[in-house]
Amino acid sequence: MPRKPATTKEAIVNAAFELVRKEGLDALTARALAAALGCSTQPIMYQFPNLQDLRELVYQRADELHTQYILAGEDLLGIGMRYIQFAAEEPSLFKLLFQSGHFDGIGLQDLIQAPEAAPLLQVAGLVLDGDHSVVAKRFEALYVAVHGYASLVANNAMTYDPEAAKQTLIAIAEGLLQNGGQG
């Protein structure tokens, strides 16, 4: 009977997630992971002959954490603020989720209409089925603003100031309402 692996698949995924969380996706190598686990690279390569499979599991865990985090917002403003706050608190995970090429070739409308976006839209009180082009344009504009703000924060190009972020989002939303969502 084969011996049970001392370094389990779950332990490897947990360590990989924490490594990426602290140091970014580029730090995820078999050697770095082995050092973090205190083992050789053999158990890692046994469980994950292709490190891309491990990277995908880390991405999924980061995506789940991000979704739970932002959905704790009670309304559209709260969701936007939590999105930006996540970028400030978890910059490596934010970069993994949104700046690692995972969405290459996907348009903004595809992201908004994806099934994964449904809980976000529901909490935000939005329904984008049918011809809701004005609502969709407003949401799209707000999403771009929130994501841009969060990207600047995650990349240390801007200091995170929650009150300034809130006032900026409110001003953008008010402008969109005054403009009828046309841009």
Structure description:
This protein has 183 residues and is an all-alpha fold. The chain folds into 2 domains: 41 residues, Orthogonal Bundle (Arc Repressor Mutant, subunit A); 106 residues. It is 67% helix and 0% strand. The chain has 10 helices and no strands. The chain is elongated and about 60 Å long. The N and C termini lie far apart (66 Å). The model has no long low-confidence stretch (mean pLDDT 85).
Descriptors:
183 residues, mainly alpha, Arc Repressor Mutant, subunit A, 2 domains, 10 helices, elongated
In brief, what are we looking at here?
The chain is mainly alpha-helical and 183 residues long.
Chart the SSEs and their pairings.
Elements: H1 9-23, H2 30-37, H3 42-47, H4 51-70, H5 76-89, H6 91-98, H7 108-113, H8 118-123, H9 133-154, H10 162-179
Helix pairs in contact: 1-2, 1-4, 1-6, 4-6, 5-6, 5-9, 5-10, 9-10
Q: What structural class do you assign from the helix and strand content?
A: mainly alpha
- Helix/strand order: HHHHHHHHHH
Tell me the count of domains. Answer: 2
Shape descriptor reads: elongated
The N- to C-terminal Cα distance equals 66 Å
Strand composition percent? under 5%
Average per-residue pLDDT, rounded, comes to 85
How many runs of DSSP E, i.e. beta strands? 0
Count of individual helical segments: 10
List the uncertain runs.
none
